Amino acid sequence: MPRASTPARRPGRPRASIDAAVFAATLNTVRELGYAGATMDRIAAAAGVAKTTIYRRWLSKGALIVDCLLDAFGPLPLEGDDREAILSSAIRWGAAKIGEPGVGAAFAGVFTDAVNDPALRRLLAERFQAPYLRALKEAVDEPERRLLFVIDVVVGTLLHRMGMTGAPMAEADVDDLVEMVTRELRAPHPE
Amino acid sequence: MPRASTPARRPGRPRASIDAAVFAATLNTVRELGYAGATMDRIAAAAGVAKTTIYRRWLSKGALIVDCLLDAFGPLPLEGDDREAILSSAIRWGAAKIGEPGVGAAFAGVFTDAVNDPALRRLLAERFQAPYLRALKEAVDEPERRLLFVIDVVVGTLLHRMGMTGAPMAEADVDDLVEMVTRELRAPHPE
DNA sequence: GGGTTTCGCTACTCCAAGTATCGATACCGA
DNA sequence: TCGGTATCGATACTTGGAGTAGCGAAACCC
Q: Which residue from A55, A185, B58, B73 could staple onto B63, CB 3.0 to 4.6 Å apart?
């Protein structure tokens, strides 16, 4: 979502399908060297791409990481109509995802490290601000944007609440998480 | 504890009582600008001290922060004799401290930010490794070192478990925390 | 006053994020 | 086939923070 641009490709050289390579390189590099160790130079080298190319597509390292996570998590199956229901289902889905042995287990560590970047945390924290919540509420009829907003809130919240542990969640914890998150979303958020 | 040196002052220019000024400056700066915003230059300026002086007394920014926290938390009242009992009482004390309105509330944010430094987290994570636990066990008859070891484990664990929230803990959560921590300390720690 | 130790200052090194520039490519439509 | 256009790659920056080196200036003890 925090992409640098999303133009309609008409003339000129088209944007090669580099995203997949960058995502894979990002994931592997972060998994190997941690978030701090995954420098943009290393990621670019691993993807066989110039660093400048990455910065043309993403505004910052944090934005790249977020998009990488969203990409790996795949589309979010939405259930319910009101905000509360949507969030609950999304949170359950996210918690389940992160608890999975495959992608989720691998990402648990990624989350842990990713949250350690102040810039990224600030980026995620913005999703909790009133304007974003309002936008979320108002965007119910825009499937694309709704999905992104929700997934952002979900990922941000998950990071906040379980990012430090890196451990997969037990089934029983999901309900507590739902409660925590909805409570947090209802209350005014300082930060 | 991760001090640069602790010589017996005999001849020469004595080490001025700079620690207090540095601690105060560190705390204020971190409180105002966050951990990342509290650069060593700023801290030094706020303390009216040269940056090199700080690096002569502390080995790194992380070490300075840890000592600052330990200083502000004050001495740890130990209870019990075996490791398990010591840790439990220490954890309860730490959880209570961090939940206090005065120092604790101020430090909750400090903790949150402090954990975001990979170097500091590595520094704290080392306390969980087997050698440190063994040392903790063997240092029972060295009050000074025992206190520091325990307090390090406590602070590190608290950071791990509640660092991301920045919220004070409820009374009821303490018991869960004790259980979690002791379980974690018993199991082999990857990282 | 001499010996010793620490302080302050200046000027570095190192490294990662992010930017600027520009020639090289790859595609479109005519 | 040939412009026009937009992207890519490479190199070389700028910026900023952590940590270090070296040296003269205190500040203390004897």
A: B58
Contact B127, B152 (CB under 8 A): yes
- pLDDT tens digits, residue range B44-53? 999 999 999 9
The conformation of residue B172, written as its DSSP 8-state character, comes to H
Interface test with A, best of B30, B128, B164 (most A CBs within 10 A): B164
Cross-chain Cβ contact A34/B117 below 8 Å = no
Distance from CA of A121 to the nearest CA of B (A): 9
Token pair for A167? 């451990």
Is the interface score ipTM higher than 0.90?
A: no
Cβ B153 vs Cβ B128: under 8 Å: yes
Residue B15 has pLDDT above 60, yes or no: yes
CB contact under 8 A, B163 and A161: no
Query: What domains lie within chain B, and their CATH numbers?
Result: 19-57 (1.10.10.60), 76-186 (no CATH)
